[in-house]
């Protein structure tokens, strides 16, 4: 049999139209692109590769020692013009030999540098299932089950986190699943902007002011610029070590009053629960009280620490005052085993989102039967295209549903508690060595620490050197740093699904050994 063509249709050279009568379309090749037997065979190759990867994770250094361009120089400059023999198996071998050695291994049990990108069997297979089914649930009609499953699981998760009922569909609010917190913040900000401008006039967009702390993730000011807020109207309020780097309600109140007195319009406050550098927790309730006289929208960015709300003993540090917020977002892919990407956002007033982000011109997207049923007193239809930026959406709800079904709320609690316990053990090791100090209070599973220096002027440089040597250790841990209030510190974030107590102990041993070596060299020099 002659080889099938490398395309699925022919075109007429005169006008580019598909040739119907002159050149029959060959469908054999197209059918093979989703052949069931091929899918099973190649799928096993992928599953085996992933399973082997996790089983052999300890063989990889957490962070590769490569230089920019290393991969581009190993791969061809041009794509294959034709299908290679047994191309999929060959590509999988390249993944093993070329791709994996050049990755930073976020699932490594020795990865302590960043907040986790947690993985689980249910999360990974949920991703595969959603990719295989491959629906596009931009409206209810486009995939009714996908839309309604999303509505169910965001309420499930909201209840597991003990969010106020007013943020759930069950209480008149509602939620959606997005890719990242960056999207959630932008959606909330645009909704707040349009609501405010509807009241004061669109011509006053240049008077809008937004507020955060100097510890707030840079995604907030970036979102503000995208939303049309002037750069100089993004107020980053200073924080201080005495307040554990939390946003001061008094400082926020004073800043908003100054702006209002100057004829500007306070619009939006981004409170953070678990800042990136030190996991500082802003006092949400007091910030809501400060924002209320100005009618400012309050959003809580709990990307990392929101997951801790599954644990009753940790909820108090996170949830205080959250009943008064306008919106709340957290990343289930960070600590709740949902695999990238899975950010969940809840809003108290979904109509504000729809008013800002909704569209009603695309008649082809509408479903007359659903609209008629809603008009006749049936349940209202949620079209998630009107709740976010994108029209094309992934079926992320399927993955989150599998995680909740397979592990249950209690299983998620055990997962979070294990990491908090290991972080507490690491904190204890730091405190037991008089050469070190814990710089900021440990609330969750992040420990911020540093080596004490006999010379305060060189303390930051000493700790930079310590981090470099820790990360350079063969088969050692991978950590990161923060610089808050002029104080340079090391960050040890426990969160990998594969991390065990022995990995934490081994990490501390490396830190101690490198500190001993550095201090010994300093004594020789002095």
Architecture overview:
The structure is a single chain. With 526 residues, this protein is of the alpha/beta class. The chain folds into three domains: 39-63 and 88-105, no CATH class; 124-404, Type I PLP-dependent aspartate aminotransferase-like (Major domain) (Aspartate Aminotransferase, domain 2), CATH 3.40.640.10; 408-524, Aspartate Aminotransferase, domain 1 (Alpha-Beta Complex). The protein has 16 helices and eleven strands. The chain has a seven-stranded mixed sheet, with helices on both faces. Strands 8-9-11-10 form a four-stranded antiparallel sheet. Helix 10 (312-319) links the parallel strand 5 (297-301) and strand 6 (327-331). The modification N6-(pyridoxal phosphate)lysine is found at residue 334.
Structural class: alpha/beta
Question: Which strand-content bin applies to the residues?
Answer: 5-15%
Could you name the CATH class of the largest domain? Alpha Beta
Helix content: 40-55%
Which quaternary structure do these chains form? single chain
- What does the radius of gyration come to? 26 Å
pLDDT averaged over residues:
91
Determine the CATH topology of the largest domain.
Aspartate Aminotransferase, domain 2
Separation, N- and C-terminal Cα atoms: 81 Å
Number of helices: 16
Main sheet strand line-up? 1-7-6-5-4-2-3
Number of strands: 11
The CATH architecture assignment of the largest domain turns out to be 3-Layer(aba) Sandwich
Most strands sheet: 7 strands, mixed
**Shape summary:** globular
Q: Give me the CATH superfamily of the largest domain.
A: Type I PLP-dependent aspartate aminotransferase-like (Major domain)
């Amino acid at each position: 049999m002659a080889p099938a063509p490398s395309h699925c249709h022919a075109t007429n050279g005169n006008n580019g139209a598909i040739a119907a009568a002159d050149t029959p379309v060959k469908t054999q090749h197209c059918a093979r692109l989703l052949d069931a037997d091929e899918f099973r065979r190649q799928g096993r190759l992928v599953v085996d590769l992933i399973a082997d990867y996790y089983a052999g994770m300890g063989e990889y250094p957490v962070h590769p020692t490569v230089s920019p361009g290393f991969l581009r120089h190993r791969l061809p400059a041009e794509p294959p013009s034709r299908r290679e023999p047994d191309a999929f198996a060959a590509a999988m071998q390249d993944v093993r030999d070329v791709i994996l050695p050049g990755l930073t291994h976020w699932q490594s049990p020795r990865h302590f540098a960043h907040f986790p990108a947690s993985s689980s069997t249910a999360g990974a297979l949920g991703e595969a299932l959603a990719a295989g089914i491959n629906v596009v649930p931009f409206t209810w009609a486009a995939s009714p089950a996908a839309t309604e499953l999303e509505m169910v699981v965001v309420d499930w998760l909201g209840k597991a986190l003990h969010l106020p009922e007013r943020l759930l569909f069950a209480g008149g609010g509602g939620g959606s699943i997005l890719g990242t917190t960056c999207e959630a913040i932008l959606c909330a900000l645009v909704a707040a902007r349009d609501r405010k401008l509807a009241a004061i006039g669109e011509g006053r967009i240049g008077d809008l002011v937004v507020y955060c702390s100097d510890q707030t993730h840079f995604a907030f000011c970036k979102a503000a610029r995208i939303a049309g807020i002037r750069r100089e109207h993004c107020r980053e309020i200073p924080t201080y070590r005495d307040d554990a780097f939390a946003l001061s309600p008094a400082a926020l109140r004073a800043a908003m009053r100054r702006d209002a007195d100057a004829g500007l319009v306070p619009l939006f406050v981004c409170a953070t629960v678990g800042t990136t550098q030190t996991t500082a927790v802003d006092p949400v309730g007091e910030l809501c009280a400060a924002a209320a006289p100005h009618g400012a929208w309050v959003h809580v960015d709990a990307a990392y620490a929101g997951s801790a709300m599954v644990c009753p003993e940790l909820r108090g540090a996170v949830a205080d005052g959250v009943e008064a917020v306008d919106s709340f977002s957290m990343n289930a892919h960070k600590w709740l085993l949902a695999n990238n990407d899975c950010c969940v956002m809840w809003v108290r007033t979904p109509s504000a989102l729809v008013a800002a982000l909704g569209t009603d011109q695309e008649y082809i997207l509408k479903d007359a039967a659903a609209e008629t049923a809603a008009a006749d007193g049936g349940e209202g239809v949620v079209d998630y295209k009107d709740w976010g930026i994108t029209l094309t959406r992934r079926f992320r709800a399927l993955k989150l549903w599998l995680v909740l079904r397979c592990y249950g709320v209690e299983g998620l609690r055990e997962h979070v508690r294990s990491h908090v316990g290991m972080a507490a053990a690491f904190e204890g090791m730091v405190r037991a060595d008089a050469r070190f100090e814990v710089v900021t209070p440990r609330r969750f599973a992040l420990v911020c620490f540093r080596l004490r220096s006999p010379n305060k002027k060189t303390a930051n440089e000493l700790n930079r050197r310590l981090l470099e040597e820790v990360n350079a250790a063969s088969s050692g841990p991978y950590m990161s740093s923060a610089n808050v209030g002029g104080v340079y510190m090391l960050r040890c974030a426990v969160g990998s699904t594969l991390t065990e107590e022995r990995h934490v102990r081994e990490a501390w041993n490396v830190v101690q050994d490198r500190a001993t070596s550095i201090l010994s060299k300093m004594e020789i020099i002095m």
